[in-house]
Protein 1
Amino acid sequence: MDLECASQETVKQGLLARGWPPIKGFSKHVKTKVLEFFSLLIKLGQDDPRRVVHSLKAGLALTLVSLFYYYQPLYKSFGVSAMWAVITVVVVFEFSVGATLGKGVNRGLATLLAGGLAVGAHQLANLSGRIGEPIVLGIFVFLQAAVSTFVRFCPQIKARYDYGLLIFILTFSLISISGFRDDEVLELVHKRLLTVLIGGSTCVIISVLVFPVWAGQDLHNLIASNMEKLGIFLEGFGDEYFKMPEDGESKEDRPFLQGYKSVLDSKTNEDALANFARWEPRHGRFQFRHPWKQYLKIGALTRKCAYRIESLNGHLYADIQAKREIRRKIQETCTTMSMESGKALKELSMAIKTMVKPFAADIHIENSKSSVKNLDTLLKSGLWDDETDLLEVVPVATVASLLIDVVTCTAEIAESVNELATMLKFEVVEPTVSPEKPETGQPKIGIS
Amino acid sequence: MDLECASQETVKQGLLARGWPPIKGFSKHVKTKVLEFFSLLIKLGQDDPRRVVHSLKAGLALTLVSLFYYYQPLYKSFGVSAMWAVITVVVVFEFSVGATLGKGVNRGLATLLAGGLAVGAHQLANLSGRIGEPIVLGIFVFLQAAVSTFVRFCPQIKARYDYGLLIFILTFSLISISGFRDDEVLELVHKRLLTVLIGGSTCVIISVLVFPVWAGQDLHNLIASNMEKLGIFLEGFGDEYFKMPEDGESKEDRPFLQGYKSVLDSKTNEDALANFARWEPRHGRFQFRHPWKQYLKIGALTRKCAYRIESLNGHLYADIQAKREIRRKIQETCTTMSMESGKALKELSMAIKTMVKPFAADIHIENSKSSVKNLDTLLKSGLWDDETDLLEVVPVATVASLLIDVVTCTAEIAESVNELATMLKFEVVEPTVSPEKPETGQPKIGIS
């Protein structure tokens, strides 16, 4: 007893030495952590209420398949195999319809194929007698596991059939090995396949019928909102860059100028959503063979534009800023370039969101292009006097040049959005409000 | 019969109409596809032979646990529960030690916890009589599935314990539901826990002992090789940019200038490897609590530099290039800036790889910084004559400005690599070859 007390004291001392909160404040510390965790959970639910719905759906699906155990006639026909329906629901039920369907189809087909092959392997192994059987089975299991594991490294297969291969290895091993102890292999395969199908279809049906979450719709929205984020940055950039430090507070506290950062790392998310979306049937305005590749193309171009914006953002907060006089000379053209590209991106984003042919975007792009031309003319005309320090021109010239790159990127994005609009036959709606006239140069409506 | 023939013909016609290769060329088409697939597999193995070894290890682990079925004394004590050992091996065995350990620990702990709670739930449900029992059990299953599914959305938990939560839902549901049919719940929990532990430890032991793949080592190498890729680009950039189009072939065919592109999208990979690495025990020069966060910090800075390089790369292939005279004036300083930053990055990469304190990197960075100063002086001194078209100066000024950004980024990277070197007590090795002298300005050895 004494020994136990002593060791408890040692543990306590050790904890204290490691800066653990003293026992007195410990419960308070735990309370704070728990409160923090709960407020995080509430925030997760508020950010996307579909998460709450999904959790309830998962609970519902699981409760439904557990009827196999509770309801006597069902239990009679499946017995413990009903367990596979429960397992299938837990592992197959995913957030989006596409992901659930993809996993369900993978699991179903892999179980069928592996079950068939395992029966064959069992028959072959049976021929080798009671001593040879485990050896032959062992070789089969080793070979199929090694080959299937290696095939999983193949990127094209990993993207769509990784889960199927995992289930293939699992089912083949389980059935061929069980066959050694249980001669009713065919019945085993039959029961397993049936329960997997029941579990899988429960998931798919609930996923599709109860407040469905479509990965395709999510990809569609993600692409549009990424474009919008860049647009917001560009609309604000001109004013922010040319505003003099003495005009007011620090530039750093502008959250709307930081929204674009999430676009830089969105590739993985886009790829995953496109992979899920490919499994989804026709829904709403999305067909089965919707041009998801075109979305990825637009996403890649948006990211390319975001890289330029990241460079621009660096100049927003650079310590050495050019003198007011130097910047003022190109302020108007640069602000127009940035503003018009931003408007074009927001227009394009809205066009994707509403699936209406972009109308004013081309005009904004033409305006930004004509600003580029104005800038060229300005520069050719000897903008700054001879005494101007070239050193001070460099940062301004860089911002101008990056903005020219952004205008080019925006035009590329517009082109690929127009391709998408043609593919999907976006609606043509005459705008009720006429788009703004460009601030410099002649308005060039309807060009390109 | 006629109907069947007719429908076959319809299918064939349909296939032909869809551009399917005609039946005559079909087998050839399949042959080509199969050959392509096999050459892809061979390439995958050649690119990283550890993949082949991993596949053999997976086969070995699976064959080992299948002994539970073949060996009578083992089968006697576990029976069909041995299946759980097979399932555990298939789903837990991952490429790296960290991923395998993470999944194994998650699975083990989740099974223990869920098993305990499920026994409690079973006891409570037992109190409600034969009719009340399924209702109480159903409520428990629904609640735990919904709550656990929701908690999986929490990003911090998803990163480390997602698999554990999945297994928690699975085990709790299986055991509490099975309890309805089988009163030996405790034995069920005991067998399941033991088989999961056996399967999990088989995976971990094989993963650690047979040609282990350490996620930590992979992260370490990835960070170093990303830095090297940027270095290669920067070393080649100066010559490539200032080379005149008439000098030779197209600039597009320079694969060494495209290597940096993979750095842009490496965040997901780095995050995943760091998550796995956190599970790994001490190995080689890596401790259990290795500063993986510092690697992620270096990775983020490297990516920031890569975004600037992406902008630079755009200027390499721009149609409008400044005239030779304009570019020649800053050619030397720009080439030095680019070359010295590139050398610094390659030095830092080598320092990480060999875990030796970077020696020459500081000198290269000082050289690149002094080139920035030289450029400032050049620009101040009225570099171009008054008749120079400002329009032609802009692209050159942009390249110079982006290179200045790159120099700043490189200095930041060097600083965080030095922090890492201090944390990990990198070896100090006196170089046998003295680093090159800067081409412009005075050598500034040993500064900063």
Protein 2
Amino acid sequence: MLHHAPQTLTGIRVREGNDLSDRLFETRDRSLVIAEPLSAEDMTVQAMDDASPTKWHLAHVTWFFETFLLREHLPGYKVFDESFAYCFNSYYESLGARQPRPQRGLLSRPSTESVLAYRTHVDAGLRVLLEDRGADPRIAKLIEVGIQHEQQHQELMLTDILALFASNPLHPIYRDQTISSPQAESPPQRWISGAGGIFDVGYRGSGFCWDNERPSHRVLLHPHRIADRLVTNGEWLEFMRDGGYREPLLWLADGWARACSERWEAPGYWLMRDDAWHQMSLHGLRPIDPAAPVAHISYFEADAFARWAGKRLPTEHEWEIAAADVTPGITDPKSRPFIPQPARSGGEPDMQQAFGEVWQWTGNAYLAYPGYTPAAGAIGEYNGKFMVSQHVLRGSSCVTPPGHARVSYRNFFYPHQRWQFTGVRLAETCA
Amino acid sequence: MLHHAPQTLTGIRVREGNDLSDRLFETRDRSLVIAEPLSAEDMTVQAMDDASPTKWHLAHVTWFFETFLLREHLPGYKVFDESFAYCFNSYYESLGARQPRPQRGLLSRPSTESVLAYRTHVDAGLRVLLEDRGADPRIAKLIEVGIQHEQQHQELMLTDILALFASNPLHPIYRDQTISSPQAESPPQRWISGAGGIFDVGYRGSGFCWDNERPSHRVLLHPHRIADRLVTNGEWLEFMRDGGYREPLLWLADGWARACSERWEAPGYWLMRDDAWHQMSLHGLRPIDPAAPVAHISYFEADAFARWAGKRLPTEHEWEIAAADVTPGITDPKSRPFIPQPARSGGEPDMQQAFGEVWQWTGNAYLAYPGYTPAAGAIGEYNGKFMVSQHVLRGSSCVTPPGHARVSYRNFFYPHQRWQFTGVRLAETCA
Amino acid sequence: MLHHAPQTLTGIRVREGNDLSDRLFETRDRSLVIAEPLSAEDMTVQAMDDASPTKWHLAHVTWFFETFLLREHLPGYKVFDESFAYCFNSYYESLGARQPRPQRGLLSRPSTESVLAYRTHVDAGLRVLLEDRGADPRIAKLIEVGIQHEQQHQELMLTDILALFASNPLHPIYRDQTISSPQAESPPQRWISGAGGIFDVGYRGSGFCWDNERPSHRVLLHPHRIADRLVTNGEWLEFMRDGGYREPLLWLADGWARACSERWEAPGYWLMRDDAWHQMSLHGLRPIDPAAPVAHISYFEADAFARWAGKRLPTEHEWEIAAADVTPGITDPKSRPFIPQPARSGGEPDMQQAFGEVWQWTGNAYLAYPGYTPAAGAIGEYNGKFMVSQHVLRGSSCVTPPGHARVSYRNFFYPHQRWQFTGVRLAETCA
Amino acid sequence: MLHHAPQTLTGIRVREGNDLSDRLFETRDRSLVIAEPLSAEDMTVQAMDDASPTKWHLAHVTWFFETFLLREHLPGYKVFDESFAYCFNSYYESLGARQPRPQRGLLSRPSTESVLAYRTHVDAGLRVLLEDRGADPRIAKLIEVGIQHEQQHQELMLTDILALFASNPLHPIYRDQTISSPQAESPPQRWISGAGGIFDVGYRGSGFCWDNERPSHRVLLHPHRIADRLVTNGEWLEFMRDGGYREPLLWLADGWARACSERWEAPGYWLMRDDAWHQMSLHGLRPIDPAAPVAHISYFEADAFARWAGKRLPTEHEWEIAAADVTPGITDPKSRPFIPQPARSGGEPDMQQAFGEVWQWTGNAYLAYPGYTPAAGAIGEYNGKFMVSQHVLRGSSCVTPPGHARVSYRNFFYPHQRWQFTGVRLAETCA
């Protein structure tokens, strides 16, 4: 797992200012910086059905700009290559047939070189478009969507590279790092009280958000407590030593079936080497750091761990309310939800590790907010169509691009998936 | 689909009085009445992995009484056959190894005859137990659980028999029925207004309920409307004619993938015969009745239909609140949740078809209520362990035993399943 | 494994005389005798895709007579039930659609009772046909085919019942048997010399044979030796103790892959009970008899064993030539192939256990003899269409009907299959 | 399909002289020439489980030389990278664990560059070894095996590249080619008479052959005829037009099941474009040439075609005897089998297209010759372990390296496989 801030990782910092053009091209560049340590071969291979090749990501986000911006709104724009739509459409049914997802790794052509040329071509188009029509709020809105979309794929690039390197017998290192001296022991877990009552959740600001964060609406919370920090590797090792992976009564039935069929006995990417647990990371195979947050766990594991600990997972809105107070750097203050929260008694801990470590599984299935409407047109064929059988994760991870997350952000994965940087924060209902 | 009340089906009516013993043995008898039209062969075959043989159901519910009542609480009880625990344990991990679910149909032995002898043996034990210790509330409670559990399996017996007969090229008739003259056209669909506000939901009475209906708690509802009746076959045919099964944009992504891979083009058990749609039912292969509620649809289909109709599925609590007023015959008044509902304006329709037709898919994933605790011990290894990846259905169906359903009852199935009597009621959010 | 002659098993002896009518009805009766210990439930369940339910076998062989004899050649014959063709056609593409093989076990209807009535109906038709046209050689020929076909299914009934009972946790006994006192130790294996030269093989007589035994033709054999008896369970235990199931170098690559994926560590139906190997048999679960021939082994295992033993499997014609001299009781002398075999030196052993124990895997793939022509019409849609990817077995087994086998008989199964009574006899090439 | 001689393809001609060193390094170079039109990305991707990436082939053949020559026989040789054994061992169980075959395409590392360095390193070692010990016949023998082994992989590289490019929506061209003017119509098919009698087959020379071509031994052939040329695309189109892919009675049962499940309706790589059949080839997507031999057909298809044509496939030895007379350029005269063939009557045609077009399916299963012994040690873990469930192909293809084939050469594939350059020559038995 990456313990350092993502801007350290890529060496590039996307300004969070108001200049759309700057943000666009800095984002575009950042994708290339992510790809920089990779060979063309690395960028072409698909680690598994859930993952995509880096090259595909680089081309897909570019196709997104070409399709939704340049084709529609830049008069005279010349499509780079008509065959790319088939290759790099992800799942937009309204935009025609496409390379089946599990076969993205067959695309040795178009070459990486040609994908880079595609990026240059589209970037040039975007420059013209911005100059000509950047002031048009409709264009600005679409560009913003394109930026955010590319940022999502930047995170996926990194998780998918890790999946690829973790499947390689040589355990390649994506980016080397001096091993930091072992972290001090993790501080004791403390509990943040969450009052019952009606709260506003969802995005209410005027900046960008995904459609699934809206509409902002009221929810009723019941009195609860939520942990101030994430569950650590050290705590997970206790769970393992206590037979957590061998006791079916701790697990959801589907989780136990999956744990058995895939022979889980530790989080994803953990390997026993010389009688000690190691974890494959973007820095290579490293000994487990007991103080670091556990990562690469499925919802099934998070749920089993919580049951073992006598706790439960937080709901997404318990998380949102607790996180809202402590997130000044993450999001534009204007966009923070208004929260009529009862005054907290002095001495209560603040939520730590809300962002930048691991996505945090919540107890909520990923479903529409009341009154949810997807965006119109093909661009709306996105968050809404995945609203079944997945669970919401909140926060962000060590590979989420800076500035991308929000307190109202809703990530989602299937309960068995664990190739993402996913972890767990505990909660409990007050009697 | 069965259009008649279930007591007509089985010719036996379980009294809903207070006499536990009567209710127990009437329930036990009703299972045999359900099995009566079947040969030993019919009772042995497993239609598919999701379904179980009738014989297995008959034995499993009996094993449940033997295990949780007689073994524990009847001194001197002689276990009928020690090998039955392996054969007829469903999924209780704490009770040892068991016949894998997809292989229940391999059990040509124990014979049906021996399963019937098992039932007699256990019934005799139950009579003694009731006589000796029936006044002990702990025993009474367990017997109630056993009754409710057997009722659930009575519904499954009927759905699984239908699955078996539908897979048979001869289209056997489970129970013949004079074809009723075609129903009058279905009345127009009207809308029941649901106010926003805080409501109590879940079971608050002193009678029996499943652990997943508790704790009773408050929920916040947003203003909405819910249809007064179910979607009909006639309306479903319109959806089909309008290309509902061919338009990916109407579907959740997982639903579309499933519809394609299983080549869905109509609800479950629908067959084209002589250029007309028919449906395989417990009364054999029958022409579609356009006025009857559509049945045997998956969550995916229900959701796609609602999107096509410009509506959505109701939430489980919208359903519960709307159904609460109109359910005098279903449940003991004491057990009805207290609902501080704003007075409804005159002229509003009442909810029709809440019970006894088809289970109604809701928009809610099947998850724990706040503060949920499963029952202690092996008997608690039930509703809780299935709380992932499924959706809640409300109401009851034409094959639900009389007296079994409640306004707070939460049924649950996976979004792709459609061998149950499942249908759809529409709802919409008020702007 | 059954160690007794099959007529003991069924208590019925089919006369091997010339009276076709007697042989026909004795064969028809024998099928019922085989089914006699079974309940209707036992007769309905399908143990696995490769096996069929007893009821299906009973109906299928009857459908064969109805289709090829009565429908075609008995004027005025009334088909018993037109829907049976769909249910009980095995694989005759030219005779229309049929119940998919892996779903034969779904046929709880037609009932066993109705299948028995079907048999009675068809038998009555056959009696009339025989009386009216029994002298017509074309009819006699078809009846002979029907008899032989039903005999093949009699063997399958027994192997499929064993597969069913072996999959049942109660280990039911098909037919009880006093356990014979342990056999004396098996005699030492001796070697029969086989000269090189040209030999006639295949069926040359005037009686019945399958098309795949023809045309009789010449083959060139190379000098070799063939064992006089079968490999025993005791010898197989040595192979197991020596790591035979753990050493990939002993195995064909496909065999090793199969052994790993199915976790083979002993022959089929072997189970460890109280630290001793047992084998599930038609007489229930029995301790392994070291002197009995090993049974329920795949070609892959037979081949690995032979390699371990420094030998090989015999070719089908080495087997045929060696068996020809010692088979007076098996087949009509007229039908024995003429074999210009060099005089054997005195003192050579004779082949033992050629018939009535286990089918013996040979090194030959199952392919057409030179000049092979399948029978004309639908009835020819049989042996020929399976001539790929299978291996020839010779001899017969303890569950082969008496009088069915021949020295030229060619049985065939896929190399991974082991639910049949299949064993191994060793051979070696002379330097 | 490639219609030109392979040396044209690669621009390099491996001398067939006696200088082992020249042959070795020319062969080594030829592999690089084959890879030359490919990007590193093309060389890394695995088209399907049966195929391997070019990079993997390049490394595997090098590992073969390192393992069997340099490690064993070159004192002081420094292994290039110990981890390569895991990556590039194909299936040698005696040489330890290895990358699972279906995951060879995950190996984005080692890089192509590093594989090329590996080749250089091993070539340097081979030069030293040849200089020091090239006169040692044991070394020379092993080098010869390495050459032949690399040649086999050269053919696989080309077939696997085609598989990759055929799976790419852009239909990339491996090597461009001026489209030759359409071939003249194919000459009429004529028949070569093959006498019955005893013939010597298998390799008897003193040059190199694979162990499966030995021992040379006598076989008995029956009188037959064999076609003088291959079946053409034009003839295959007739088969298609006549419903060949829709008539189950033409097919082996396993073949029909495969044809249905994979929806075959034409040979492999055939695509309908603008109402005309095209075939994907190493020269890109080209219209079908009716005069060219049909290629990319499975055994199942070859067999069905032959049945449709009223013929059969030749046996491997009918093929070998007929081809022996006409193969002066293919193989060293010393190595031609001695064939006591009866004089052929004048006017008989000669066998055409025996080599260099497509491999020709024979009716023989791939099995050991009498007295077959695999080579000792790990190097013998090759041809023998595949001797089950496959069929023999004879001749060679347009992508077989020059000098590699022999009249006694036995290629083998599973009956459903069709990614190789495989075709069909007809035969028939004389009455």
